[in-house]
Amino acid sequence: KKNLIMSLRDNGIITERQYVGKTLDEATKFAEEGGFEVRIVEVDGQSKMLTMDAKSDRINFRVGGGLITAAFGG
To answer: How far apart are CA 70 and CA 60, in angstroms?
Structure first.
């Protein structure tokens, strides 16, 4: 079985600037192509209800005006 982290783009290191400014669709496609799962944590300042689990293969997005304003792991 292949190591999860090694199967992720950039060995699982999430670089926010790769996502900020993209549309949600563009950012989701880019993340998923890199092996990540996507979770929306906030839309236009409204926080979403979330589980408390942390996953090394998940990127959390904050979305404002249809564009990604923040991207971080967990």
So the answer is: 8
Q: What is the pLDDT of residues 5-20, one digit of tens each?
A: 568 999 899 999 999 9
CA 54/CA 73 separation, integer angstroms = 8
Spatial separation of the C-alpha atoms in residues 47 and 29, rounded to whole Å = 22
Tell me if 72 sits within 8 A of 62, measured CB to CB: no
CA distance 43 to 35: 23
Strands (E), the chain: 37-43, 46-47, 58-64, 67-73
- Give the pTM: 0.89
Query: Are 12 and 57 within 8 A, CB to CB?
Result: yes
16 phi/psi in degrees, rounded to 5: -55, -40
Unique residue bearing structure tokens 């996953």: 55
